Amino acid sequence: MALALARSFVGHDTSVRHRRLAEKKQKAENPQFRLPVPRASDRLVAMELVFLGTGTSQGVPMIAHECPGLDLQNPRNWRTRSSIHVVMDGVHIQVDAAQEFRMQCLQHDVRQIDYFILTHGHADHILGMDDLRRFCLHLGEERKNRGLPVFSTQEGLDRIRDIYPYAVGRKPTHFYYPFFVLQIMPERMELECGTIQSTTLSHGPMDVLGLVFQEKSSGKKISYYTDCQEVGPAQRDLARGAEVVVLDALQPKRHPTHMSIDEAVETALDIKAPMTYFTHLTYHIDHETYVGKLPDGIEPAYDGLRIQI
Fold first, then answer.
1. pLDDT tens-digit profile of 150-196?
2. How far is CA 281 from the centre of its chain?
3. Both ends of the chain: CA-CA distance in Å?
4. Are 109 and 306 contacting, i.e. CB atoms less than 8 angstroms apart?
5. Of 55, 106, 156, 209, whose CA is between 20 and 30 Å from 225?
6. Beta-strand relationship, 91-95 and 83-88
7. DSSP string, 165-215
8. 248 in Cβ contact with 235 (< 8 Å)
């Protein structure tokens, strides 16, 4: 689904000195870091969703496993651990960083990250965060010493501190090291590029962030609900109206901490988005088989799938 969008942007004729004074005033009044207004050229790009990975915690295929029923000649059945990259009005938001994050960025040409959101602290979502160091270096002279804004639940932030103590100090510990500014993810985050609303989803004993992105210039929405055993009424209501919904759909059989295919299909049909994609898929899900089996408007995602809205 690709919708052509025409966008216009009127630049601000503000001197460097006045802009810096305004930034200082804003920082003093609001401790939450905010990005500069994106360049006019950035705003010509449609809202975009990139699936960097769509596999379960062990990846697909798994090590030392034959993966019966899975066509490994089809590259869409080779799945790295799950994460997405969202672009709204030229601002780049990365959600999760799996063990393959470096290779995902190289393969799918990710060159900019302005915000990072960790949905939860499991290994397949957090263990690639050290490679955010490259994006910390590319923040620009005015921003790189402030660090990369990183949002999560309290549990997620605690896990980051445990794993990356060298990245969470008051200043960078080394020029080439990552530098994170940790903040609790609010229920609604207002950015120059739009809004990100969050909710909590049950993933066994753990809460996982569900996210709804809405671009300011177009009003288009993307909902992303990974790693959850169900999507409740309030979370479904929050996702309604999105052009694209992404749902956890682990395997055909029921699972104690993830939605099954049937549970995800029921959720998708209730939300009624124009297009729904399933992610966090095991080897049980052969891409072409399920493209033919799932209802219209529902498909398994695959690594490298890029959607412009």
1. 999 999 999 999 999 999 988 777 778 999 999 999 999 999 999 99
2. 16
3. 7
4. no
5. 106
6. antiparallel
7. GGGSSSS-SSTTS--EEEEEPPSEEEETTEEEEEEEEEETTEEEEEEEEEE
8. no
CA distance 99 to 59: 10
Give the pair of three-digit tokens for residue 174.
């080394």
Rounded Cα distance between 38 and 192, Å, is: 8
C-alpha–C-alpha distance, residues 262 and 236, integer Å: 16
CA atoms within a 13 Å half-sphere pointing along the CA-CB vector of 104: 31
For the stretch 257-268, pLDDT in tens is 999 999 999 999
CB 274 within 8 A of CB 221: no
What residues contact residue 167 under an 8 Å CB cut-off, 6+ apart?
A: 129, 130, 160, 173, 177, 178, 179, 180
Q: Which amino acid is at 23?
A: E
Is the peptide bond between 61 and the residue preceding it cis, with omega within 30 degrees of 0?
yes
Pull the structure tokens for residue 134.
């490259």
Please count the residues of the chain.
309
Cα–Cα distance list, 66 to 70, 178, 262 (Å): 9, 38, 25
């949002």: which residue's tokens? 151
DSSP 274: S
**How does strand 275-279 pair with strand 244-248?**
parallel
Q: Structure pTM?
A: 0.85
Least Cα distance to 120 among 198, 32, 197, 234 occurs for: 198
Cα(215)–Cα(35) distance, integer angstroms: 15
Angle at alpha carbon of residue 33, lines to 27 and 37, rounded to 5° = 90
